[in-house]
Amino acid sequence: ATARPLLEVQGIDVFYGAIHAIHGLSVIVNEGEIVTLIGSNGAGKTTALGAISRLLPIRSGDVLLDGRSLGSVPPHDVVRLGLAHVPERRRIFADLTVTENLEMGAFTVRSTADIASRMDEMFELFPRLAERRKQFGGTLSGGEQQMLAVARALMQRPRILLLDEPSMGLSPLFVERIFDIIETINKRGVTILLVEQNAHMALAIASRGYVLKNGMIVDQGSGARLRSDESIQAAYLGAH
Ligand code: ATP
Description:
Oligomer: single chain
Mean pLDDT: 92
Strand content: 25-35%
Strand order of the largest sheet: 6-7-8-3-9-10
Shape: globular
Bound molecules: adenosine-5'-triphosphate
Helix content: 25-40%
Radius of gyration: 17 Å
Structural class: alpha/beta
Low-confidence stretches: none
Number of helices: 10
Distance between the termini: 35 Å
Largest sheet: 6 strands, mixed
Protein backbone atom coordinates (compact mmCIF):
# COMPACT_ATOMS: atom_id res chain seq x y z
CA ALA A 1 0.00 0.00 0.00
CA THR A 2 1.27 3.48 -0.75
CA ALA A 3 1.78 5.79 2.20
CA ARG A 4 -0.90 8.41 2.55
CA PRO A 5 -0.24 11.45 4.71
CA LEU A 6 -2.92 11.82 7.36
CA LEU A 7 -1.18 14.71 9.09
CA GLU A 8 1.04 17.20 7.30
CA VAL A 9 2.77 19.92 9.26
CA GLN A 10 4.11 22.39 6.73
CA GLY A 11 6.87 24.71 7.93
CA ILE A 12 5.15 26.11 10.99
CA ASP A 13 6.50 28.88 13.21
CA VAL A 14 5.24 29.35 16.77
CA PHE A 15 6.01 32.23 19.11
CA TYR A 16 5.45 32.93 22.80
CA GLY A 17 5.48 36.71 22.67
CA ALA A 18 8.97 37.51 21.37
CA ILE A 19 10.26 33.96 21.93
CA HIS A 20 10.49 32.04 18.68
CA ALA A 21 9.80 28.52 20.01
CA ILE A 22 9.25 26.56 16.76
CA HIS A 23 11.15 27.29 13.54
CA GLY A 24 9.73 26.07 10.24
CA LEU A 25 8.71 22.68 11.59
CA SER A 26 7.63 20.14 8.96
CA VAL A 27 6.39 16.70 9.97
CA ILE A 28 4.45 14.06 8.07
CA VAL A 29 2.48 11.27 9.70
CA ASN A 30 1.09 8.69 7.30
CA GLU A 31 -2.14 6.83 7.91
CA GLY A 32 -1.51 3.89 10.24
CA GLU A 33 1.93 4.97 11.42
CA ILE A 34 3.43 5.59 14.83
CA VAL A 35 5.72 8.61 14.49
CA THR A 36 7.71 10.03 17.36
CA LEU A 37 9.10 13.46 18.09
CA ILE A 38 12.10 13.28 20.42
CA GLY A 39 14.32 15.94 21.95
CA SER A 40 15.64 17.31 25.22
CA ASN A 41 13.79 19.48 27.71
CA GLY A 42 12.69 22.70 26.08
CA ALA A 43 13.29 21.48 22.52
CA GLY A 44 9.72 22.44 21.63
CA LYS A 45 7.93 19.09 21.61
CA THR A 46 4.96 20.19 23.72
CA THR A 47 4.69 23.42 21.78
CA ALA A 48 4.65 21.50 18.49
CA LEU A 49 1.73 19.31 19.61
CA GLY A 50 -0.16 22.34 20.92
CA ALA A 51 0.26 24.09 17.59
CA ILE A 52 -0.89 21.02 15.64
CA SER A 53 -4.06 20.63 17.72
CA ARG A 54 -4.72 24.38 17.42
CA LEU A 55 -4.36 25.11 21.15
CA LEU A 56 -1.51 27.48 20.29
CA PRO A 57 -1.54 29.96 17.42
CA ILE A 58 0.68 29.38 14.39
CA ARG A 59 2.49 32.44 13.01
CA SER A 60 3.20 30.95 9.60
CA GLY A 61 2.97 27.63 7.79
CA ASP A 62 0.00 25.28 7.91
CA VAL A 63 -1.28 22.03 9.37
CA LEU A 64 -3.28 19.70 7.13
CA LEU A 65 -5.42 16.83 8.38
CA ASP A 66 -6.25 14.44 5.57
CA GLY A 67 -5.44 17.22 3.11
CA ARG A 68 -7.62 19.81 4.80
CA SER A 69 -6.10 22.91 6.40
CA LEU A 70 -6.78 23.27 10.11
CA GLY A 71 -5.77 26.92 9.82
CA SER A 72 -9.22 28.31 10.47
CA VAL A 73 -10.70 25.38 12.41
CA PRO A 74 -11.31 26.06 16.13
CA PRO A 75 -9.81 23.50 18.58
CA HIS A 76 -13.11 21.77 19.48
CA ASP A 77 -13.83 21.19 15.80
CA VAL A 78 -10.37 19.72 15.31
CA VAL A 79 -11.54 16.92 17.61
CA ARG A 80 -14.60 16.36 15.43
CA LEU A 81 -12.36 16.06 12.38
CA GLY A 82 -10.59 13.13 14.03
CA LEU A 83 -7.58 14.55 15.84
CA ALA A 84 -7.36 13.97 19.60
CA HIS A 85 -4.63 15.32 21.89
CA VAL A 86 -3.63 13.90 25.27
CA PRO A 87 -1.68 16.74 26.87
CA GLU A 88 1.22 16.51 29.29
CA ARG A 89 0.27 15.87 32.93
CA ARG A 90 -2.97 14.19 31.89
CA ARG A 91 -5.57 16.76 33.08
CA ILE A 92 -8.30 14.34 33.90
CA PHE A 93 -11.25 15.55 35.98
CA ALA A 94 -10.25 14.78 39.59
CA ASP A 95 -13.77 15.21 41.00
CA LEU A 96 -15.46 13.01 38.42
CA THR A 97 -15.50 9.22 38.43
CA VAL A 98 -13.71 7.14 35.83
CA THR A 99 -17.01 6.56 34.02
CA GLU A 100 -17.88 10.26 34.10
CA ASN A 101 -14.43 11.18 32.77
CA LEU A 102 -14.99 8.82 29.84
CA GLU A 103 -18.44 10.29 29.21
CA MET A 104 -16.86 13.74 29.03
CA GLY A 105 -14.53 12.39 26.36
CA ALA A 106 -17.53 11.49 24.23
CA PHE A 107 -18.94 15.01 24.23
CA THR A 108 -19.39 14.96 20.47
CA VAL A 109 -21.34 11.69 20.53
CA ARG A 110 -25.15 11.98 20.71
CA SER A 111 -26.30 8.37 20.96
CA THR A 112 -26.18 6.93 24.49
CA ALA A 113 -25.96 3.41 23.04
CA ASP A 114 -22.92 4.49 21.09
CA ILE A 115 -21.33 6.00 24.20
CA ALA A 116 -22.00 2.79 26.12
CA SER A 117 -20.40 0.61 23.47
CA ARG A 118 -17.33 2.84 23.28
CA MET A 119 -17.07 2.71 27.06
CA ASP A 120 -17.21 -1.11 26.98
CA GLU A 121 -14.43 -1.05 24.44
CA MET A 122 -12.32 1.15 26.75
CA PHE A 123 -12.95 -1.12 29.74
CA GLU A 124 -11.83 -4.07 27.63
CA LEU A 125 -8.67 -2.23 26.57
CA PHE A 126 -8.01 -0.93 30.10
CA PRO A 127 -9.24 -3.59 32.58
CA ARG A 128 -7.67 -1.56 35.36
CA LEU A 129 -10.11 1.26 34.66
CA ALA A 130 -13.02 -1.17 34.59
CA GLU A 131 -12.19 -2.24 38.15
CA ARG A 132 -12.12 1.39 39.19
CA ARG A 133 -15.04 2.75 37.19
CA LYS A 134 -16.75 4.36 40.20
CA GLN A 135 -13.56 5.77 41.69
CA PHE A 136 -12.84 9.51 41.48
CA GLY A 137 -10.17 10.45 38.95
CA GLY A 138 -8.14 12.32 41.55
CA THR A 139 -7.71 9.15 43.62
CA LEU A 140 -6.19 7.09 40.80
CA SER A 141 -2.45 6.41 40.67
CA GLY A 142 -0.34 8.32 38.14
CA GLY A 143 -0.33 5.38 35.73
CA GLU A 144 -4.06 4.89 36.05
CA GLN A 145 -4.66 8.59 35.43
CA GLN A 146 -2.55 8.36 32.29
CA MET A 147 -4.61 5.40 31.10
CA LEU A 148 -7.79 7.36 31.82
CA ALA A 149 -6.49 10.35 29.85
CA VAL A 150 -5.73 8.11 26.86
CA ALA A 151 -9.06 6.28 27.15
CA ARG A 152 -10.94 9.57 27.38
CA ALA A 153 -9.32 10.75 24.14
CA LEU A 154 -10.12 7.42 22.46
CA MET A 155 -13.82 7.84 23.30
CA GLN A 156 -13.82 10.23 20.31
CA ARG A 157 -12.68 7.40 18.02
CA PRO A 158 -9.96 9.66 16.63
CA ARG A 159 -8.12 8.90 13.42
CA ILE A 160 -4.95 10.32 14.91
CA LEU A 161 -3.93 10.58 18.54
CA LEU A 162 -1.31 13.08 19.75
CA LEU A 163 0.34 11.84 22.93
CA ASP A 164 2.53 14.14 25.03
CA GLU A 165 4.95 12.28 27.31
CA PRO A 166 2.61 9.42 28.24
CA SER A 167 5.37 7.72 30.26
CA MET A 168 6.21 10.74 32.39
CA GLY A 169 6.41 10.03 36.10
CA LEU A 170 5.34 6.41 35.78
CA SER A 171 6.95 3.35 37.35
CA PRO A 172 8.80 1.05 34.90
CA LEU A 173 5.92 -1.44 34.92
CA PHE A 174 3.40 1.23 33.94
CA VAL A 175 5.77 2.60 31.31
CA GLU A 176 5.83 -0.84 29.66
CA ARG A 177 2.04 -1.01 29.89
CA ILE A 178 1.53 2.38 28.31
CA PHE A 179 3.83 1.54 25.41
CA ASP A 180 2.03 -1.81 24.91
CA ILE A 181 -1.30 0.01 24.89
CA ILE A 182 -0.04 2.54 22.34
CA GLU A 183 0.94 -0.32 20.05
CA THR A 184 -2.43 -2.02 20.55
CA ILE A 185 -4.35 1.16 19.79
CA ASN A 186 -2.26 1.62 16.67
CA LYS A 187 -2.93 -1.95 15.50
CA ARG A 188 -6.64 -1.20 15.88
CA GLY A 189 -6.25 1.55 13.32
CA VAL A 190 -5.38 4.74 15.18
CA THR A 191 -2.46 6.72 13.78
CA ILE A 192 -0.14 8.02 16.51
CA LEU A 193 2.11 11.06 16.93
CA LEU A 194 4.09 10.46 20.11
CA VAL A 195 6.21 12.97 22.02
CA GLU A 196 8.59 11.31 24.46
CA GLN A 197 11.65 11.94 26.56
CA ASN A 198 11.97 8.17 26.78
CA ALA A 199 13.44 8.20 23.29
CA HIS A 200 14.65 4.63 23.41
CA MET A 201 11.21 3.14 23.91
CA ALA A 202 9.52 5.62 21.62
CA LEU A 203 11.88 4.81 18.73
CA ALA A 204 11.38 1.09 19.37
CA ILE A 205 7.66 1.26 18.58
CA ALA A 206 7.78 4.05 15.97
CA SER A 207 8.19 3.48 12.26
CA ARG A 208 9.81 6.93 11.97
CA GLY A 209 11.11 9.64 14.22
CA TYR A 210 12.05 13.31 14.15
CA VAL A 211 14.67 14.87 16.40
CA LEU A 212 13.83 18.35 17.62
CA LYS A 213 16.42 20.77 18.98
CA ASN A 214 15.85 24.44 19.78
CA GLY A 215 12.55 24.31 17.94
CA MET A 216 14.05 22.86 14.75
CA ILE A 217 14.17 19.41 13.19
CA VAL A 218 17.84 18.39 13.24
CA ASP A 219 17.45 14.76 12.15
CA GLN A 220 14.80 12.33 10.97
CA GLY A 221 14.63 8.74 9.86
CA SER A 222 13.34 5.29 10.63
CA GLY A 223 13.00 4.38 14.30
CA ALA A 224 15.66 1.71 13.86
CA ARG A 225 18.12 4.09 12.19
CA LEU A 226 17.74 6.80 14.83
CA ARG A 227 18.01 4.24 17.60
CA SER A 228 21.33 2.95 16.32
CA ASP A 229 22.75 6.41 15.51
CA GLU A 230 25.70 7.12 17.78
CA SER A 231 25.23 10.87 18.05
CA ILE A 232 21.57 10.38 18.92
CA GLN A 233 22.46 7.73 21.45
CA ALA A 234 24.92 10.12 23.07
CA ALA A 235 22.47 13.02 23.14
CA TYR A 236 19.12 11.39 23.88
CA LEU A 237 19.47 7.73 24.71
CA GLY A 238 22.24 7.92 27.28
CA ALA A 239 20.02 7.77 30.31
CA HIS A 240 18.15 4.67 29.19
P1 ATP B 1 9.65 19.59 27.95
O1 ATP B 1 9.90 18.17 27.65
O2 ATP B 1 10.55 20.15 29.04
O3 ATP B 1 8.21 19.96 28.13
P2 ATP B 1 9.51 20.52 25.26
O4 ATP B 1 10.41 19.96 24.24
O5 ATP B 1 8.12 20.04 25.30
O6 ATP B 1 10.17 20.38 26.68
P3 ATP B 1 8.36 23.14 25.12
O7 ATP B 1 7.64 23.00 26.41
O8 ATP B 1 7.57 23.04 23.88
O9 ATP B 1 9.54 22.09 25.05
O10 ATP B 1 9.16 24.51 25.13
C1 ATP B 1 9.84 25.03 23.97
C2 ATP B 1 10.40 26.40 24.29
O11 ATP B 1 9.35 27.35 24.44
C3 ATP B 1 11.21 26.45 25.57
O12 ATP B 1 12.31 27.30 25.37
C4 ATP B 1 10.26 27.04 26.57
O13 ATP B 1 10.94 27.72 27.58
C5 ATP B 1 9.40 27.95 25.72
N1 ATP B 1 8.05 28.06 26.27
C6 ATP B 1 7.17 27.06 26.49
N2 ATP B 1 6.00 27.50 26.98
C7 ATP B 1 6.14 28.84 27.10
C8 ATP B 1 5.29 29.90 27.56
N3 ATP B 1 4.04 29.66 27.98
N4 ATP B 1 5.79 31.14 27.53
C9 ATP B 1 7.05 31.40 27.11
N5 ATP B 1 7.89 30.45 26.66
C10 ATP B 1 7.45 29.21 26.65
